[in-house]
Amino acid sequence: xxxxxxxxxxxxxxxxxxxxxxxxxxxxxxxxxxxxxxxxxxxxxxxxxxxxxxxxxxxxxxxxxxxxxxxxxxxxxxxxxxxxxxxxxxxxxxxxxxxxxxxxxxxxxxxxxxxxxxxxxxxxxxxxxxxxxxxxxxxxxxxxxxxxxxxxxxxxx
Length: 157
Prior knowledge:
alpha+beta, Pseudouridine synthase, 7-stranded antiparallel β-sheet, 3 helices
């Protein structure tokens, strides 16, 4: 992700300090009751099992997570929705586990999704794409200052 070690260190620090906004699109199974929402929950990472668990209430060892979504489109016939997602916190498997927790798993997700749904849609890979980064540096970014207030994005289809 970076050309050299120093740039990598700076970028990792910016991610950690939430000075880089991350945006995703996901195709999920289900029609969400709210067309946009700010989801808050708590995540526990089980490194041994390579899984995370979500709780609606704080528990020991769980970290707060915040996921924002907006429905881009719905297909009521197939019971699917396409979401625009922004992370306020960026934890391991956050989007995948958080959406599954609210009953709208990402189609193609073999870990947190529904295998029967994945087979129905013939999806072996999760339908989740990172499409944009926004740089909002508050602290010193050294030689990467030129990125401040810029966006890097892919064309959405």
